[in-house]
Amino acid sequence: MSAAQDNARSDAGTTEGRRGGRRRGRWLRRLWLPGALAALLVGIDSQWIGGGSGAPDDGDGEPARQAREARTPAAQAPSNQVPPSQAPSADVRPAEAAGLAESTPRDPAVGRSDGRAPARRALAGSGGGSGAKAPGAPAIASSGRPSPSDESVAPANGDPPPIRAPEPGPESAPNLTTFEPDRFESLLSLVRSRAAQGEFAAARRHLAVLQREPLVAPQAAAVNAAAKELLGAVHERVSAILRSAAEGAVVRAGRRATAGLEDGSKEFTHELSAAFALADLGRDPSAAPKVPAASWPTPSPIAVERRLRAYRGAEELVGTVVECDDRRVTLRVAAGGRVRFPTVERTASEAVDSTRVEAVEFALAALHAGQPLLARLWLHRARGAGAGAAGTGAASAREQRLAALLR
Predict the structure, then answer these.
(1) Exposed/middle/buried for residue 336 (C-beta within 10 Å: 0-12, 13-18, 19+)
(2) How many angstroms separate the CA atoms of 268 and 284, rounded?
(3) The overall pTM is greater than 0.70
């Protein structure tokens, strides 16, 4: 019995052991796969798996990183490449590139650059490994900073580089001693032509342009000669006016004098005033008498059939007097087989070969018509006519009164 019982217990223990083994096997099969996956992840994260050379990690993960870079395809950008947005462009100056590299943040946990160190080393050593340097590029020291001796590189603080003035050369020196010959000759010709035409103000303006320009010695001498010619032309014009009036062409002389004053030439005004003062005709050619007009002598009418020369616009008329009053005169003009009777202003007419007495009457008529300049020219004609025309060498009372009014 005891042997049978022992066998029964042994069989029961064996059966129970088998049941326990099967239960443990089922639990082991449930746990080994998750455990293996966890170990694999821990190994990859700790860089125990895929280290390449199998060398122990020195703390900064450098062997694992080199292995990953070796396995990275050439077409795929490495993980430590500088992002395109942070990579220096082609038009960035070396100083700016060096500043970008220096400002790259560093990872304090691992004690190295966060993937931008290669870019900084590439910028700092561009052209330094082989000694090559782009044409025109500034010198870069081994530290990646521009050389302080290169003044064309912007300072590190961002200020613009200093601008150096180019050294003056013979070709950049201004030419202050020449004036374009063609323009010079043109202006000089204008000065002379305007002076010859009596347009003295225009001649003076052209001369002033020449005098402001840089001239060589021959040109300056020509300008000085032109200035003297201008003054000579003014003096000649004033002399011709007084000479023409003294000879009896008073109306034409008065027109030239008026045109010269209206031109605005200071030279002409000064010369005419000086000539009138010298001839005892008053210092201001256009000044009216200061006494009231009611006290002036009244002009006598021109005798009928007196031969006159008159001007109507640009037309010159020669005829005899038909009718005359204080302001107008009617002439009988026979020309071309026909007879006309034009009426003109008395101040636009003059007696042919006027006498001294007639000149005084024409002067009084001009004074009452508001033309003191013409009146002074008629007074000059009266004095120039002299005793031969008037029959006496003494001035009449009316002439003396006229002279007193015009002084």
Answers:
(1) exposed
(2) 13
(3) no
